[in-house]
Amino acid sequence: MINEEELIQQLKSNTHKEQAFKALVTLYKERLYWHIRNIVKLHDDADDALQNTFIKIYKNIHNFKGDSKLYSWMYRIATNESITLLNKKAKQHQITSEEIQQLAINNLTSDVYFEGDSIQLKLQNAIATLPEKQQMVFNMKYFQDLKYKEIAEILETSEGALKASYHIAVKKIESYLTNN
């Protein structure tokens, strides 16, 4: 198993870049897919955003400064790609990104890759009522079990603010689930 520093060096070198990138994709594609999927909801959209994420990582690895962990940097790119995809779809349909997300949730039952039940659909609806940042924090903490420190690096904010956001998000979700 190659360590992160060696992987970064290989990604930045001309001789090992292709091989290192394949290793990077193998290591992170599933985690990034589910991170993106929690934001965009639908499999096809998640695939598109994941592909765009890896293209950006490949093209911009030389800009990675090492101020954060590599996966924090990649998650940030994946998050931005997901939001960009939602905004682009919303603009195409001339509706808000919140409405596009609600449409995606409504279409989850017809997504062959969605294996959830009515409870999971209700949870997705509850999450969709949250402001964007609270959604991100909740998804990363609840579904991906990331530590606050990792989420803080990804979203470039303080751990204290994240803990507060997560706590508020949980209360809102509990309230939604109780009242709907």
TrEMBL record:
Q: Name one GO molecular function term.
A: sigma factor activity
Q: Which residues form the RNA polymerase sigma factor 70 region 4 type domain?
A: 121-173
What does the entry give for GO biological process? DNA-templated transcription initiation
Where does the RNA polymerase sigma-70 region domain lie? 24-90
A single Pfam family it belongs to is Sigma70_r2
What protein am I looking at? RNA polymerase sigma factor
| NCBIfam families, alphabetized | sigma70-ECF
Keywords annotated in UniProt: Sigma factor, Transcription, Transcription regulation
Keyword Transcription regulation present in the record's keywords: the answer is yes
The family annotation for this protein states: Belongs to the sigma-70 factor family. ECF subfamily.
- Report the InterPro entries cross-referenced here: RNA_pol_sigma-70-like (IPR039425), RNA_pol_sigma-70_dom (IPR014284), RNA_pol_sigma70_r2 (IPR007627), RNA_pol_sigma70_r4_t2 (IPR013249), RNA_pol_sigma_r2 (IPR013325), RNA_pol_sigma_r3/r4-like (IPR013324), WH-like_DNA-bd_sf (IPR036388)
Instruction: Show the coiled coil region(s).
Output: none
